[in-house]
Design brief:
heterodimer; A: alpha/beta; four-stranded parallel β-sheet; 18 strands; about 30% helix; B: alpha/beta; globular
Chain lengths: ~400, ~425
């Protein structure tokens, strides 16, 4: 039983693990070389793109990390997540029994299991036709493009509407608008103008800019003021739904007593007194050189190869980037990638194999260390992007790893 | 040479905007396009030592959040500080910045006329005049100069080189007190010594000058390098013997660890040794003295405090060691700040043209402080402490003062109005 846990990585998996572990009474530190990619993401929880039921991802087979996690961890993890978000005033809608189909800024359809209610209101299963709003001056979400794509998929987009905002001194990001809209007087002045332009509009999709930390209040206030049913569509980064989720989780973590150490790149440290059986923590590159961060257990939530979780060398070896544990990869590098960019990539499945307690292990299932755990994108066998299982895998494996580390 | 870092590392930027979303200045003013836009994005249009093509970089407060949150290792803040040094500044602002960046000299020169100088700081009329004529914000808190400099008061501990070891290794530190303790808050230096001595540590005070950070922030890299080289020469004898250099002003310790190398471009064994021997006060306690702290039976401190880790402390990349120690004090209820920065960022918020933006940047923290209504706000940097107290009316303290209380030591902070 460990009472201290060091988590490496500040994405969804790392932050969710940190909250869970701290709430179970562990002393938790989260260390990360920069923040994870949540603020680049849509903020929804994708569990399995193709399936409409919790059992469908079983078709992925025994080697898929969700296969073993599905029964014991996935459901409680999602429930825990939904409760946390409720508590953080960022309520989500969704469950494992059906799939939400949501419009994207590119005009495609995003199939997901749970979404912030401000996004979920845009479900395409509600067949009420809608308009899309183009907020003036904002480059990162173009209503015309979204409408074109959605119409080509048979979605009834009535039209697009220009919604101007007062001129600003520079290009506006979604984030700028979100902060401005938290100011009631700014909100009132733009809504006064928008109301006139929305005559006859009953349902309206807007880029996700309706508030940062107070999105529900902002959303509700604007909806009441405009007298339309609103929904939000995630934009290019900074993407508010992902940013809101990151900020909510970090706030919950800090309130639960987690110490967040941002900045250092880390290397794993093996406990020499344990005959190589245990890890003792990590060495981090701080402003004053290397410093040791010790802990009774370490959880790798470092993400996949594109997120820094593993690195490859010229000789074809692939290793996890913290402890240098070997990953399976074909010797022939040509087999790492698919012939074209927009298809499933073999390298996406590279990662660490884990035992039932989520400890990285060798091909015969023997853990490398007694107290080293892994969760999320660093796990082998999943192609999170083409399978659409990124957040589901992160939450479920985080849940299992925290149980493993603290039991 | 100083530009090389920025030039190469800007290619690491993938334009993900994680820094933009975290920047406390871009969040409150459109005049700052954000760290990515003025940094890695604009770097390709800059020539070393040429004026910056886009003056908007001058809105960067230098808080360092962007570098810390970057997942690709881009030194965004460092690039922007360098670019800012090449921006044009008018003669009046230059004069003001000359003074703001020399806190040690200001203390030394005003000490002989101390009653007058301190009365001037309290005079609304004179402060309003300074605001209009010199660009020194009238709402900015400025410290009163102390009757005697700390290094004179504790001349008994000043050493030119470390003394021969008196006890076992590792029981001695070199105290880098910084200008604020030396000129304005010598009582804090005295308390530091008492806390360290209570924990069985011998304290020596090496000869030292201002760390140079205010000069660097105010574009005078040449003067900052002169100060830095003097400090390196003075501190190296301690670093070389493996004696930790400990400071209670988190921006000074950051300068010794990081800015000399990463911004001022100094290199060589002296700067490496000093950097790696330097600890912020609570980092030292946490990394080196945890066992001794555990031996103490702390006096309960029945208070509710809001702890704000300064942006400069977070740039040390060691987390929040003060929080780890504060949480061991029985009776103490600790709330943690949600803000990235209090806004002042050293001397940034003291300038009339930046003042409103700096106040807005601290808005989240001020709101949290008012809402939580703690007995004290704790923070490891003096400028943050003065600034937050001014804007929230919550008494702000160095966390060391609370630790001293739990170790049964007297608080030497002068009562308001007295010395």
């Amino acid at each position: 039983m460990s009472s201290s846990l060091l988590i490496v990585g500040e994405g969804l998996t790392g932050l969710f693990s940190a909250v869970l572990a701290a709430r179970k009474g562990a002393s938790v530190r989260l260390i990360a070389e920069g923040r994870g990619g949540l603020s680049l993401s849509h903020g929804c929880v994708d569990v399995w793109r193709q399936g409409d039921s919790k059992s469908s991802f079983r078709r992925a087979g025994r080697n898929h990390p969700l296969f073993g996690l599905s029964s014991a961890a996935l459901e409680p993890a999602l429930l825990e997540f939904l409760q946390l978000m409720q508590e953080a005033h960022l309520p989500y809608a969704g469950d494992l029994d059906r799939v939400l189909r949501l419009p994207t800024a590119l005009g495609s359809v995003h199939r997901t299991s749970a979404a912030p209610i401000t996004l979920a209101a845009g479900t395409l299963d509600d067949h009420a036709p809608f308009h899309l709003g183009q907020i003036g001056g904002m480059r990162d979400c173009w209503a015309g493009l979204a409408a074109f794509g959605l119409r080509s998929r048979g979605v009834d987009v009535v039209g697009t509407i220009e919604l101007p905002i007062p001129e600003r001194a520079r290009d506006v990001y979604a984030h700028d608008l979100a902060l401005s809209l938290e100011d009631p007087s700014y909100r009132d002045s733009v809504c006064a103008d928008w109301t006139r332009r929305l005559k006859g509009v009953r349902r309206l999709g807007l880029p996700a800019v309706l508030g940062q930390d107070h999105s529900i209040e902002v959303f509700t206030a604007i909806e009441e003021r405009l007298r339309v049913s609103l929904f939000e569509i995630p934009t290019l980064p900074p993407s508010l739904p992902g940013l809101r989720l990151e900020r909510a989780l970090r706030r919950l973590a800090v309130e639960a007593g987690v110490e967040v150490i941002e900045g250092p790149a880390v290397r794993g440290e093996v406990d020499g007194r344990s005959a190589g059986k245990r890890v003792s923590g990590v060495v981090g590159t701080t402003a004053g050189g290397p410093r040791v961060f010790r802990s009774q257990a370490v959880l790798l939530a470092t993400g996949g190869g594109l997120h820094g979780g593993w690195i490859s060398f010229a000789n074809g070896e692939v290793q996890d980037s913290v402890f240098g544990l070997p990953l399976d990869a074909p010797e022939d590098r040509d087999r790492w990638t698919a012939p074209t960019l927009f298809e499933a990539q073999p390298y996406a499945r590279f990662g660490l194999r884990v035992d039932p307690q989520q400890r990285p292990c060798d091909a015969r299932g023997r853990p490398y260390f007694e107290n080293l755990f892994a969760a999320g994108g660093i796990l082998a066998g999943a192609d999170r992007s083409s399978e659409g299982c990124r957040q589901g895998l992160g939450l479920a494996s985080a849940y299992a790893a925290v149980q493993g580390a603290l039991s | 040479m100083t530009a090389s870092l920025a030039f190469f590392d800007s290619d690491l930027c993938v334009k993900c905007n994680i820094c933009t979303a975290a920047c406390p200045v871009a969040a409150v003013t459109d005049r700052f396009p954000g760290p990515k836009a003025v940094g890695p994005q604009m770097a390709r249009f800059r020539m070393p030592n040429h004026p910056s093509v886009d003056p908007s970089v001058a809105w960067c407060s230098g808080c360092g959040v962007c570098s810390r949150v970057c997942p690709h290792g881009v030194p965004v803040a460092e690039m922007n500080i360098m670019a800012k040094a090449e921006t044009h500044v008018g003669p009046i602002q230059s004069l003001r910045d000359w003074g703001l960046s020399r806190p040690a000299e200001v203390a030394r020169w005003s000490r002989p006329v101390r009653p007058l100088a301190n009365a001037a700081l309290r005079s609304g009329l004179l402060r309003a005049a300074a605001d209009r004529l010199l660009g020194l914000a009238s709402g900015a808190p400025l410290p009163e100069v102390a009757p005697e400099a700390f290094h004179r008061r504790r001349a008994d501990l000043v050493r030119r080189v470390p003394e021969r070891p008196s006890g076992d290794r590792g029981t001695r530190v070199a105290f880098f007190h910084g200008c604020s303790t030396d000129g304005y808050e010598p009582w804090l230096g005295e308390m530091t010594i008492r806390v360290l001595q209570r924990l069985g540590i011998d304290v020596e005070i090496p000869p030292q000058r201002c760390c140079g950070l205010p000069l660097q922030s105010n574009r005078d890299f040449e003067a900052a390098r002169r100060y830095a080289r003097a400090n390196l020469a003075n501190l190296h004898p301690w670093a070389e013997r493996g004696i930790p250099i400990v400071g209670t002003s988190t921006s000074c310790t950051l300068a010794l660890k990081h800015e000399y190398r990463a911004v001022l471009g100094l290199s060589g064994p002296e700067v490496e040794a000093v950097s790696e021997s330097t600890f912020d006060f609570f980092e030292f306690l946490d990394q080196v003295l945890q066992d001794r702290l555990a031996d103490f039976d702390p006096v309960p401190v029945q208070r509710r405090v809001l702890y704000h880790p300064p942006c400069q402390l977070r740039s040390h990349r060691v987390g929040t060691p003060a929080l780890r120690i504060l949480r061991q004090i029985p009776g103490l209820e600790v709330i943690v700040s949600r803000a990235e920065c209090c806004g002042v960022a050293g001397t940034y918020g003291l300038k009339s043209e930046r003042y409103d933006v700096a106040v807005k940047a601290g808005g989240d923290l001020f709101a949290q402080a008012r809402q939580a209504a703690p007995d004290f706000l704790l923070t490891d940097s003096e400028t943050c402490r003065w600034w937050i107290e001014r804007h929230t009316r919550v008494p702000a303290r160095h966390p060391l003062e609370i630790l001293a209380e739990s170790l049964g030591l007297e608080n030497l902070r002068p009562t308001a109005g007295g010395d």
